[in-house]
Each structure stands twice: as structure tokens, then as C-alpha cells.
Design goal:
InterPro entries: FTHF_cligase, FTHF_cligase-like_sf, NagB/RpiA_transferase-like
Number of helices: 4
Number of domains: 1
Largest sheet: 7 strands, mixed
GO biological process, one term: tetrahydrofolate interconversion
GO molecular function: 5-formyltetrahydrofolate cyclo-ligase activity; ATP binding; metal ion binding
Shape: globular
Order of helices and strands: HHEHEEEEEEEHEEE
Pfam families: 5-FTHF_cyc-lig
Structural class: alpha/beta
Protein name: 5-formyltetrahydrofolate cyclo-ligase
CATH architecture: 3-Layer(aba) Sandwich
Length: about 190
Amino acid sequence: MTDLSSIAAEKDSLRKQVLARRKAMPEVERIEHSLMLSDHAEDLPLPAGAVVAGFWPIRDEIDPRPLMDRLRQLGHPLCLPVMTGPSLIFRRLERDTELVSAGFGTSEPGPSAGEVRPDVLLMPLAGFDGKGTRIGYGKAFYDITIAQLQHSGPLLCVGLAFSVQEVDRVPAEAHDKPLNGILTEQGYRAFG
């Protein structure tokens, strides 16, 4: 095995392990921990009025919607990702935004919602380590998008996860973009 294929295999094994831990959490615990994210909204290092991209949760992911609502109350415009191929664009999310099915059990703003450039990405993930290296779902959508967005200005990347998704070490590949911080039910932790 080459170094790259062994790293990919190690990440795939870690992804399976951590997703199994997440799935094993009782549903009530997942709901309670998701609600706890909003208790830490003001701990996030967000510039005033920063445009925040959240995500629509799928399967047993942590649910960012209570946190997003709290951030909206704090004056942050919101948006959601829209898949457009190998990368993502972001469309404005307001109370009256029409959401459409986007596959994978998720929803996204329809074409009538204006496209915006987020200042902050709240990102789903499979796992993370204490250095801010993350394991995504293996398609590199966020890595590609982060690389594109960083060309047009500062970008804060915050992973959202349950604390049970932390692992000792995530092997990194050249294209992997590290997190600036992680928010779990236990609070916000900055990296770097």
C-alpha cells in the first residue's frame, strides 16, 4: 500500500468506528446534546454580523438548527450549503425561505434564495482530533469549498459534533483543511 492509500484506509476505518459510536447514542441524548450547542453560541469567536453557514442534519448527526436560530437572534445572517458538483455554494436562509429536498435526507434553499459567501462554516463531520484535523464523509466537498472560499477572504471553520466523535489522532492528507475550532455539547474549543 502507498502512503496515501494507507492514510485513506486508516481514515475509512476511523470513520466507521466513530460513526458507529455516534449511531449508538440514544436518540434522547442526541437531541439533548444538540440543544446544548445553543448554550455555547456566544462562546464562538464570530465577528459581529458574520454570515454563518450551517447545515441540515442527516441521519444521526448533531442537529445545528437550535444553534443556528440562536445565532440568528444574535444578528448573524444564515445560509445553507447547496451541492453543485464537487463543491458547495451557499444560499441565504431566512424564516420564509423555501427548502427543497437535496437527497441524502437533507434539505437546501431553493434557487429563489440569494447566493451568499459565508464568513463562518459550521461543518458536519464524522470525527475529529485534538489538533483540529477532521474526518469528513469521504467526498471532500468541504475541503474543496474551503480552498475556494479562502481565496476571497477570511473564513472561520468550526466543526459541530458530539464529544463521542473525538479520536486520538486523525491522519491528514495534503487536501485536508483543518478546523479552527470544534463545538460539542461540552462547549467550544479553539485549535491552532
